[in-house]
Amino acid sequence: MRSRMHRERLDALIVCGNQYAGFEGAVFYISGFEIVHRYVYVVVPLDGDPTLVFPHEARWIGDKSKAWIQDQVWPEVPGHWIRQRAQKGKWKRVGVYGSDFIMAVRDYRELAGTLDLVPFDFQFDMARAVKSQEELTEVRAAMDIIVDGFWALVNAYQPGKTEAEIMAPAVERFFARGVGSRMMNIVLSGENGSAEAHFKIPGLRRVKDRDLMLYSLEVAGPGGYWVEFSRPLLRGGPSPTTRKMAEAYPVALERAQKLMRAGELASSVHRAVAETFAEHGFSLGHLSGHSIGTTMIEQPAIGDRSDIPLEENMILSLHPQVIDSRGEICLYTQDTYRIGKCEGECLAHVPWKFFSGQESRDAFSSPQSALSR
Question: Which residues make beta-bridge pairs with 290?
Fold first, then answer.
């Protein structure tokens, strides 16, 4: 991290994290501290020891003994303390990870105008985009947890239950296996074999026959690494539009996986997905994916303008959402991949298909079963 700070001519770096699911990971990555509530900063000077800066009201929240950064402070206004530290160190140019989405307004007010605040999100993410073998072990462990939860979801899927009741057994598995609050589980749903094109929190709506359910499962395992996974649930046949969308998915996923190789541009992966859907008369709802790690969404993005070379052992979440021409009906999937030398490795050995709730996990437990897509 400091080598990249040096290249950007930074005197120091402020790493921001808060409790919002998926936005706590940068602090965990660089300090070992797990955010339980509110927010935290890690102040990293170019030379010298870093400091964990907690808001005063969070003094007794979180186990601070787990952090490997031992210099810890709890000022009334963290931004004021950081400004004084910068003045003492004669800092002028300070990088910030999380200025757009995480840094508290009261702290930004203290720092803006007195320091040259430099966005550092991209550089921070790229410094940790290639995962070590230790990190890959944590990613695979998280994948095992999320697939375990998915099968609990499949077993619970039954028309007449609420969306929340179907989701509940998966959440129980996640929590029992150490995920804690590091999860975001949302759903796309709709009637008559189609799903409406907007995400929502699983609620008390009762699921009917032929309702299409697209649960988006996103969790971080005990090691702090996020993974994402989704497959469609449906009793009965899909609508004609959904069926046509489903025909595009195996082709799009196969094309994308073949391009998830060292040296390929991230934009090439996105275009392979987008062009496949366009050939079938549909468009993408948003970016087709992104890098993922201790933060839910990291760089590089898998998008049309992301001309960044992929490297072996990067981890990507591919989550193409295909939308009809009116923006009303969609289909969705999520998979987590490791970038390989020749092509990507899908970390979940679960085929892409419509699950009816009557499937046996044992029938899909081998890597060969995933080849059916």
Answer: 301, 317
83 CB-side CA count, 13 A: 14
Closest of 140, 195, 212, 235 to residue 321, by C-alpha: 195
Whether the pLDDT of residue 76 is over 60: the answer is yes
Residue 254, classed as helix, strand or coil, is: helix
The pTM of the full predicted model, rounded to 2 decimals, is 0.90
How much of the chain is helix, strand and coil, in % rounded to 5?
35, 25, 40
Average pLDDT value over all residues in the chain: 93
Q: Which fold has domain 133-372?
A: Creatine Amidinohydrolase (3.90.230)
Query: Does pLDDT of 363 surpass 80?
Result: no
Beta 93-97 vs 116-119: how paired, if at all? parallel
| pLDDT number for residue 54 | 95
**Which residues sit opposite 188 in a β-bridge?**
214
Beta strands in the chain, from DSSP E residues, in sequence order:
12-18, 39-45, 51-53, 72-73, 93-97, 116-119, 186-190, 195-196, 212-220, 226-229, 232-233, 283-284, 289-291, 298-302, 315-318, 321-323, 329-332, 335-338, 345-346
Gap between the Cα atoms of 364 and 359, Å rounded: 9
DSSP string across 68-110: S---EE--SSHHHHHHHHHHHHT--EEEEESTTTTS-HHHHHH
Q: How is 290-342 classified by DSSP, letter by letter?
A: EE-SSSSSEEEEESTT---B--TTBEEEE--EEE-TTS-EEEE-BEEEE-BSS
Distance CA 168, CA 138 (A): 24
Instruction: Give the pLDDT band of residue 373 (cuts 50, 70, 90).
Output: very low
Contact of 95 with 13, CB cutoff 8 Å: yes
Q: Helices (H), strands (E): how many in the chain?
A: 9, 19
Order of strands, sheet of 289-291, starting from the edge strand that comes earlier in the sequence:
298-302, 289-291, 315-318, 335-338, 345-346
CATH number of 2-127: 3.40.350.10
Domain boundary assignment for the chain:
2-127, 133-372
